[in-house]
Hints:
47% of the residues lie in helices and 22% in strands.
Amino acid sequence: MYNHEQITLCIIDDIKSVVDGLTAIEWADEHGITLVGSSANGEDGLELVKRVKPDLIITDIRMPKMDGLNMLRAILELNHSCKVILISCYTDFEYAKQAVQLGAFDFVVKPFTEEDITEVILKAKLQII
């Protein structure tokens, strides 16, 4: 179940500049969201999710070791209630379709602006609180 007092976020992407950009956003001060970890691949990301049980996850689809769609499937098997936002530079409709069918909250295409990702995260946050 969600912890309504503190909304937590994990960022999982194999591109360091994307992780750096997303972690630089003032999540706590401006949006009341605590960043509880980041990871550079799907396997480590899944272990991070198991350990910290975040409310929100931003993850790339294409990553080494385990892609974002397989990671989403594994998270669903954990029965951990969270909102997953998938990001990808691939505009192939099939990725977005699979993401939605698996239960992703949203799909954001790279490159995105800070405003784009923040808007999606805040919509997800509203469904949690």
